[in-house]
Amino acid sequence: MHRKSRRRVVFAAGVATVLALPIAGLLVTQGADASNTVAINVNASQNLGIVPSIANGVNTATFDGHLNDSAATAALAGAGVDALRYPGGSTADAYRWQTNTTVDGLGYANPANGFDDFMGIARKIGASPVITVNYGSGTAAEAAAWVRYANVTKHYGVKYWELGNEIPGDGTYGSMWEHNLKPKGATAYANNIADYITEMKAADPSIKVGAVLTLHNSWPDGLVASKYGDTADWNTTVLKKDGPKLDFVILHYYPTSKSEADLLTQYRTIASIVQATRAEITKYAGSNAAKIQIMITETDAGFESDSVPAALYTADSYMTFLQNKVQNIDWWDEHNGPSNITTLPDGSTDYGDGGILSAGGCAGSVCEPAANTPFPAYYGLKAVGAFAAPGARMVRATTSNSTVTAYAVRTSSGLNLLLVNHSAKTSEPVSISYAGFNPANVTSAQQFSEANKKLQQIPGVKAHGLTLPAYSITVLKLANAGAAPIAATSCTVTTGNSVSWRGGYTENVRITNTGSKAASAWKVTFGLPAHERLTASWNATHTQRGNLVTLRPVDYDRTIAAGATLPFGFTASDSGTAARPTWYALNGVRCNGH
Predict the structure, then answer these.
(1) What is the mean pLDDT of the segment spanning 530-543?
(2) Three-state DSSP class for 398?
(3) Which of 345, 360, 394, 395 gets the most CB atoms within 10 Å of its CB?
(4) Which of 81, 4, 54 lies closest to 355, judged by CA?
(5) Cα radius of gyration (the chain)
């Protein structure tokens, strides 16, 4: 038996505007001389953090009728999933782990899906369990007994333990879907989980425990439930009381979108959400704040769940969370079930199924594919798993056009790129430049697209350019040729004294090498709109390929010393509305100030 277990209302990220992480990047064309080439710059020397060992996670559930299917386990392993959450959303606050049962009327526990069954799956694929203990109808002693059984009796070594599911949804702020028999309010939760932490860590001091927080700028963030004795909002109350004992905090992120284009921008809200949560931890959790991790133990696309854009969103959101120092992201969920059947713009069927694998169910006369058939979101996770293995070092990748996003990681054998084309109809040629890394060749290239809805190998890809199909994800693995090209550590750019006329303009530019080393044999790149062409330049020689302009030294100015400034200028003709460059890069490093 399978049921769609939960609502999607609370913690919905219907947030207004937020800044995107400066990681969006672009892709490259296979030697194409297209006028709309997107420039991607990879700076392998700019470290954005290490991929955690529990990054690529998925929710599993005790109510899942296909949890133990061998095909499902193989699919998880094939996607590189390294974390599994159990026993399943709101079910957790009604679940008795000793008997594998739920409170009457509050969900279903498949007799084959007990804790030991789940652990068999987790161990088979090498995934770390993330266990949600029963806060709503359980006790601290019951949770401690679970820790003791898992890690002392069975030696499973389960490290991550959540203290309840979405407890603010117990009616504290009005809406109620979470089962909770304890007193309502943030103060009651904060006081009660203090006992949970003490008893659970007495059973195994090595475990990590996490508390539920509300999502920044989403209901009920910032509300104070004074009727239940609270004097501050949920996050402030919990962090002040339990911050010294917590190892991580829990957020659930369900974006709300009205269109595919809207969905594909939702990853841009992630940076501000994580930054705001980190600021709260720093402000209220005391001396332990720096040690508290952030985990996103539930998320999904929330719109057209079984569409290709959902796959693209999956890749963007997971990588944006990781580059913002989130330790774990768990997709909702492995199997879910059909609801709200619709026809997608590409003519395929959206079953309203938030699972990454089909449950094989029917809604009215419409039935899903056979159980365990991957939906597109599965391939988004698989792309992340193929691209960002635990221990890889995330590095900076920037783009000249937000239609394409780019992410890069350094590995022991070279460098991996993940490229996402958001354009629904247009193939995007991309050109890729590298700083701090010298690519030898592409050792593996995989692609998922609207036209071919599987992540599979593609031939003939070069390290410096390819064309990305519409609505696609591409994963490239590159070998290192040895010594990396010289790269400026950093630079700033200013422009001014421009003159424009009908059909063209001049631009005067000053780039300062703010790094500690001289930039010799320098190269400056910038992008122009497709309708503009460079007609002249001074203090540099220029070439233009598509909309990508490259400037190189003249005989008398081959080195930019540390702290020195390179002045140059150019004239451009335009056949449309004049638009000056919005970015400049020195030796592949994007400059600040423009």
Answers:
(1) 88
(2) strand
(3) 395
(4) 4
(5) 26
Question: What burial letters (b/e) apply to 355-393, b meaning 16+ CB within 10 Å?
Answer: bbbbbbbeeeeeebeebbebbbbbbbbbbbbbbbbeebb
Instruction: List Cβ neighbours of 76 (8 Å cut-off, separation of 6 or more).
Output: 58, 84, 121, 125, 127, 334
pLDDT of residue 485: 53
d(CA 570, CA 387): 39
Q: How far is CA 35 from CA 433, 440, 460, in A?
A: 17, 27, 22
Rounded distance, CA 577 to CA 503, Å? Answer: 8
Mean pLDDT computed over 188-199: 98
Using CA atoms, how far apart are residues 408 and 395, in angstroms rounded to an integer?
6
Q: End-to-end CA distance of the chain, in Å?
A: 57
Instruction: Read off the pLDDT of residues 403-422 as tens digits, 9 standing for 90 and up.
Output: 999 999 999 889 999 999 99
Residues forming a β-bridge with 512? 492, 565
Question: Around Cβ 109, how many Cβ atoms within 10 Å?
Answer: 22
pLDDT at 20: 29
Give the SS3 label for residue 286: helix
How confident is the model over 353-396, as pLDDT tens digits?
999 999 999 999 999 999 999 999 999 999 999 999 999 999 99
Cβ pair 40, 26 in contact under 8 A = yes
pLDDT (0 to 100) of residue 33: 34
